[in-house]
Amino acid sequence: MQFKAGFRDSRLTAFDGLPGPKRLPQARTGAPVLLGVCFVLLAVTGCKQKAGPPPQGVPEVAVVTVQPERVVITTELPGRTAAFLIAEIRPQVNGLIQKRLFTEGSEVKAGQVLYQIDPAPFQAALDNANASLARAEAGLLSIRLRVERYGDLLADKAISRQDYDDASAAMKQAEAEIRFCKASVDMARINLGYTSVTAPVAGRIGRSSVTDGALVTAYQPVPLATIQQLDPIYVDVPQSTSELLRLQRRLADGRLNHDGTNQDKVKLIMEEGTPYTFEGTLQFQDVTVDPTTGSVILRVVFPNPQGILLPGMFVRAVIIEGVNEQAILAPQQGISRNPKGDPIATIVDAEDIVQVRMVTLDRTIGDKWLVSSGLNPGDRIIVEGVQKARPGTPVKAVPFGAAPQSGLAAEKPVQTSATAN
Question: What is the pTM of this model?
Fold first, then answer.
């Protein structure tokens, strides 16, 4: 009994600071007291093992070092194709269509006969004009001889001056009549030629609005057919005036330089997303702003030998704005946004301390951002492990894509052990 009581008193004194009752209830026997003390010791030992995780090393992050590089700045604008030449076929004389001499949708050559108008009335008009001319020329001969005889008689004062003047006036009138008849012959010949309606330009002709036997009138508002020259072909691209002014300002500030001979080269992306085979040439920029859209038209000429591009197609033109010789490109995964929506970049400085930079973004180029301000050459941007990097804390920076070092590998067993506990 004395041994048990002494053992109890010493244990209770050692654990008087523990939470709960400071003293155990009086036990009649020593065995229950001993079991209770053992239970408390096991609980305290378990709490000491779980109190606080083991210390971890400096977090490791993957970084990309930005360096200035030469970048060709381009802009992608939507546009539509337009025919290089458009000719609307209209008759120049009244008549009846005898024959259509082309196949709709085919290629025609310049000067090719497309329609034949009944030439019989115009041939008769030409014959009539020729007859009138011959009659006028025959009458002129006798009048001219009379004037010559009157001139000799007037010198001898055998006739009056009035008779000579009348003969001279008659000769001039006959000469004027001949000129009129010649003009009538020319007009009749021209009208006869107009009965063969020809193609003014080479290209692809569309559908015909008339058939054989149709009556047409000169210069009617509805064209008989339309010819479009498709090789080369135009692409009209609208550009907003705000973008145009921004580009001019950047060129004036020296942030962009002209790309020499390649400045006017334009690439084309088809409607389904595939690139067009041939490059185009920027021909001119319109001088008038469309008040409804606030944009100007850029006209680009593209070769179209295979006839892939048709008028009215929707395309996207990639136009070269200039060259930035000292462009700063940042990976897109290295740029995030703060709660206000402003772009930020998390970097590692020269002392391996995490810092946050406010940046200004220009545009995306591939999988990178073109940064206008906020980053300097040599800055190391965190692209992986940014969740572990807090501003102002040290980190271990490794190049992006490198194998993880031993420090990062050593953290995994510790985390596994803590999870297991």
Answer: 0.63
